[in-house]
Write a structure and sequence with these properties.
By secondary structure, the protein is an alpha/beta fold. The chain folds into three domains: about 160 residues, Rossmann fold (3-Layer(aba) Sandwich); about 180 residues, NADPH-cytochrome p450 Reductase, Chain A, domain 3; about 180 residues, Nucleotide-binding domain of ferredoxin-NADP reductase (FNR) module (Rossmann fold). Helix 22 runs parallel beside helix 24. The structure holds flavin mononucleotide. The site of flavin mononucleotide has 24 residues, from helix 1 and strand 4.
C-alpha cells in the first residue's frame, strides 16, 4: 500500500476575502486535477479532527498588527494551548501567507503558524510562500500554486487519474496561449460561455450591440503600453479562470422601483444597526491638504462600547458607478433595479451567503468590490467574454507572466471595474461571472473617538475623505468616506480656530453600522494609576480622544466622591497616572484636529504633557512624532520602564509606526543596555503583555 495520503485539508483564515478566494481556487483546481479533499475556514477546525489530517494546506492572511483574522482566533487558542508535541506527527503541511510589507509584522500569522506546526510535530512538504499585497499578491501566489502541483504528488495520491489528465491538458492550454490576432472571438462562442441561468435575464442579442451609455463619462480608459506584445508570442503563467460556480436564479417577485434598497444582503460579523447622524463637523480648513470629518452617531441603548473599540460602517459602492456598470452590461437597467434573484452555487463564498431576493443593483452596490485593484484572474476571465480579438489578446497578455509590467501599470492606475470595461469596449461578461471573480465589498472600520462616560448613547469618529488623482491625473475616491461626506451634506470647512459641530439630527440621516470585536485589546488599562504614552498623528489621534475623555470623566467622578486628609484633591490626582500625548499634523492653522479639546485636556490636567510634531509650519524643520520621542528618550524611559506606562501607537503602519518602533528600540539600547536585537525582542514581549499596543493601517 502507498504511504501517501488519500485526501488533503485546506484551512483558510481571511479578513477581507483574499485568502478565502485563493484557498477555494486551490481546492477547485486540486479537485480538477484528481485529488480529493476539503476546504474549510479555520474556525471550523474542530469538525476536521486535525490530528488525523495527513496533508494540510493553509492559506492565512493578517489583520491589525500582524494578528490572525478575527474568525480564526479560536483555532489560534487551540494551537497555543496544545502542548502535545506529537499532535501533528503524521501531518505534512505547507502554508501560503498573505501579508503586506507596509506593516512591520510582515506575514506574522504564516510565520507563527509555521513555527507552531513544527513544534507540534508536523513536517513541511513544500516551503511556505509569503505574498505581499503592497506589490500584488499574484507575483508570489501564482508561482507558489504552480509549484504546489509538483510538490503535492509526493505526499498525496490522486483518486481520479482520468480527470487529472484532462485537466493537465487544460492547464497546458491555459499556460501556453499563442497569440493569433486574426482569430476573432465570435458572438456564438461567447454565447456558449454564458451559463443558462444568465440567459433568462440577459438578452444576448441586445447585450452584444452598442447601447446608449449615459453614465459613460464615469469610466476612464486606462493608459497602457502594449508595445511589448508581439504577434506569435508565447504567453505563460496566466492564472486559472475562476470556476463558474455562481448561479443567479430569477424569482417571480420584483422590487418596486421606489423602495429603498436594504443592506440585508451584506454579510457582517455582527448584526447591523441603523444609527442616526446627530452632529457633524469638518476639522480642517479649506486650505488644508486633506478634508477631515468628525461625525457623531446616535446609537441609543443599542451598542455597548469602551474607548479603543472600533465599529464597522456598511457603505455602498457609488450609485452612479453601479448604474453605469449595469447600463454597460445588461439590456435593461430598470430591470436590474427591480427583478429579484437568489444567488446559488456550490460552496458560495462568505460574502454571497446572504444574497437572497436581491436585485443585480443590490449585488453591485453592496456585495462585490468595484474599486480595488483587479486580480489577474478577473482580467483573465474578462478575456473570455471579449469579442474583439485584439482586446482579448491584450487582456490575456496583462494576466500573463510576460505582461507583468502592464499588470503593474493597471494596479498603479487604481481602476474601477467600469474603467476596465471602458478600456476593452467589446468585453461583456455576464453578471454571474463577475460574481465569481470580483472580491467581496468590505465594510469600513473606524476607531471610536469618544467615551460613553462623556457621550452616553453616542459614538464619535473622525476620518479623512479619500479623494485624490492617480498618476495620470484621473480622479479617484474612496468608498465610505465620500459617501459619508455626501450623506452629511458636505459641511463647510472650519474657518475659525475650533469650529463647531453642526446639528443634523432633524435630517434623519441613517448609517448602517455594526459592532467590531476588540481583538487586539487596544483599550485603557483598568488601573487608572498606570501612566499612558499615547502616540497618534493625524486621524491616529481619534481613539486617544476617547481614552482622554474617559480618564477626564473618571477623574471628575472620583473628585465628586470627595476625599479625606488635608489634601484630598492632590491625593485623588495621585490615583491617576500621568498621560503623555505625541500628536502630529502638517500646519497648525489648517489641520490641527481636535485642537480645542486637546487644549482643554491640558488645562484640566488630563494630559500631563502634550507634544506636538508639526511637519510643515517650517518646511526646513519638519518634525514628526518619532523625532519628538527621540528627544525625550530619558524621560520616556523613566515613564515606560520605571513607572510601567502602557504605550499606544495609532495611525500609519509604514512611516510612523516603524519610526516610533525604531525610536523605542533606541531608548532601550541607550538606557536598558540592550543590543538592537534584544531591544526588538523586548518590544515584542511588551506587545504580548499589552504594554505596547498598536492600531495601524496601511
Ligand atoms: C487592517 C489591516 C491590517 C493588516 N496588518 C498586516 C500585518 O500586520 N502584517 C501583514 O503582513 N499584513 C497585514 N495586512 C495585509 C493583509 O494580510 C493582506 O492585505 C491580505 O491580502 C488580506 O487577505 P484577506 O483578504 O484574506 O484578509 C493587513 C491588512 C489590513 C486591511
Amino acid at each position: 500500500m502507498s504511504d501517501k495520503a488519500s485526501s488533503y485539508t485546506i484551512l483558510w483564515a481571511s479578513q477581507t476575502g483574499n485568502a478565502e478566494w485563493i484557498a477555494k481556487s486551490i481546492h477547485s483546481e486540486a479537485k480538477e486535477r484528481g485529488y480529493v479533499g476539503d476546504c474549510l475556514p479555520m474556525d471550523v477546525y474542530e469538525t476536521v479532527g486535525l490530528d488525523k489530517v495527513r496533508v494540510l494546506i493553509i492559506v492565512a492572511a493578517n489583520t491589525g498588527d500582524g494578528d490572525p483574522p478575527d474568525h480564526s482566533l479560536k483555532f489560534w487558542r487551540f494551537m497555543r494551548r496544545n502542548k502535545d508535541t506529537g499532535y501533528f506527527k503524521s501531518c505534512q503541511y505547507t502554508i501560503l501567507g498573505l501579508g503586506d510589507t507596509n506593516y512591520t509584522n510582515f506575514n506574522n500569522t504564516a510565520k507563527r503558524l509555521d513555527r507552531r506546526l513544527k513544534d507540534l510535530g508536523a513536517t513541511s512538504f513544500y516551503p511556505k510562500g509569503l505574498a505581499d499585497d503592497a506589490e500584488g499578491l499574484e507575483s508570489v501566489v501564482d508561482p507558489w500554486i504552480e509549484k504546489l502541483w509538483d510538490a503535492l504528488p509526493k505526499v498525496l495520491e490522486k483518486n481520479n487519474e482520468g480527470s487529472s489528465e484532462k485537466v493537465d491538458d487544460l492547464a497546458k492550454k491555459v499556460e501556453e496561449v499563442k497569440i493569433e490576432p486574426t482569430n476573432p472571438y465570435s458572438p456564438d462562442e461567447r454565447a456558449k460561455n454564458i451559463p443558462p441561468e444568465a440567459e433568462k435575464y440577459l438578452n444576448l442579442e441586445n447585450s452584444l450591440v452598442e447601447k446608449k451609455k449615459t453614465k459613460d463619462h464615469l469610466g476612464h480608459a486606462l493608459k497602457l503600453d502594449f508595445s511589448g506584445l508581439q504577434s506569435g508570442m508565447q504567453l505563460s503563467g496566466m492564472p486559472r479562470v475562476p470556476a463558474a460556480s455562481i448561479k443567479l436564479v430569477r424569482l417571480e417577485a420584483t422590487r418596486p422601483i421606489n423602495e429603498t434598497p436594504s443592506t440585508q444582503c451584506v454579510v457582517t460579523p455582527a448584526p447591523i444597526t441603523e444609527a442616526s447622524v446627530s452632529r457633524v463637523q469638518c476639522l480642517t480648513t479649506q486650505e488644508a491638504m486633506k478634508r477631515t470629518l468628525h461625525v457623531e452617531l446616535d446609537i441609543g441603548e443599542g451598542l455597548d462600547y469602551e474607548p479603543g473599540d472600533a465599529f464597522g460602517v456598511v457603505a455602498p459602492n457609488d450609485e452612479s458607478l453601479v448604474e453605469a456598470i449595469l447600463e454597460r452590461l445588461v439590456p435593461s437597467t430598470a430591470e436590474a433595479y427591480q427583478a429579484l434573484y437568489n444567488v446559488e452555487g456550490d460552496g458560495l463564498p462568505t460574502h454571497l451567503q446572504n444574497s437572497k431576493s436581491v436585485t443585480l443593483a443590490d449585488l453591485l452596490r453592496n456585495v462585490v468590490d468595484l474599486t480595488t485593484t483587479p486580480r489577474k484572474a478577473l482580467l483573465r476571465m474578462l478575456a473570455d467574454y471579449t469579442s474583439n480579438a485584439e482586446e482579448k489578446t491584450k487582456l490575456i497578455y496583462i494576466s500573463s507572466k510576460q505582461g507583468v509590467a502592464q499588470f503593474n501599470s493597471v494596479r498603479e492606475q487604481v481602476p474601477t471595474l467600469l474603467d476596465i470595461l471602458k478600456t476593452f469596449p467589446s468585453c461583456n461578461p455576464p453578471i454571474e461571472r463577475l460574481l465569481d471573480a470580483l472580491p467581496p465589498h468590505m465594510p469600513r472600520y473606524y476607531s471610536i473617538a469618544s467615551s460613553p462616560l462623556k457621550f452616553p448613547g453616542k459614538i464619535h469618529f473622525a476620518f479623512n475623505i479619500i479623494d485624490y488623482k492617480n498618476i495620470y491625473d484621473v480622479p479617484r475616491k474612496g468608498v465610505a468616506t465620500p459617501w459619508l461626506d455626501q450623506l452629511t451634506g458636505y459641511v463647510a470647512a472650519r474657518s475659525t480656530k475650533t469650529g463647531n459641530m453642526v446639528d443634523v439630527a432633524a435630517k434623519s440621516i441613517k448609517v448602517p453600522i455594526f459592532r467590531k470585536e476588540n481583538t487586539n485589546a487596544f483599550i485603557l488599562p483598568s488601573d487608572t494609576k498606570r501612566p499612558l504614552v499615547l502616540i497618534g498623528p493625524g486621524t491616529g489621534i481619534a481613539p486617544f480622544i476617547g481614552f482622554l475623555q474617559h480618564r477626564q470623566q473618571q477623574l471628575r467622578i472620583r473628585k465628586s466622591m470627595g476625599g479625606v486628609g488635608t489634601h484630598p484633591s492632590r491625593d485623588i490626582k495621585k490615583e491617576f497616572g500621568d498621560i503623555w500625548v505625541y500628536y502630529g499634523f502638517r500646519e497648525r492653522a489648517k489641520d490641527y484636529l481636535f485642537e480645542q479639546e486637546l487644549e482643554e485636556f491640558v488645562k484640566d490636567g488630563t494630559i500631563t504633557n502634550l507634544r506636538l510634531a508639526i511637519s510643515r509650519d517650517e518646511p526646513e524643520n519638519k518634525t514628526y512624532v518619532q523625532d519628538l520621542i527621540r528627544k525625550d528618550l530619558d524621560k520616556l524611559y523613566e515613564l515606560i520602564v520605571n513607572q510601567d506606562a502602557a504605550c499606544y501607537v495609532c495611525g500609519d503602519a509604514k512611516g510612523m509606526a516603524k519610526g516610533v518602533n525604531d525610536a523605542l528600540v533606541e531608548m532601550l539600547v541607550q538606557h536598558h543596555q540592550l543590543d538592537v536585537v534584544a531591544a526588538n525582542k523586548l518590544l515584542i514581549e511588551w506587545m504580548g503583555s499589552r504594554k505596547y499596543l498598536r492600531d495601524l493601517w496601511a
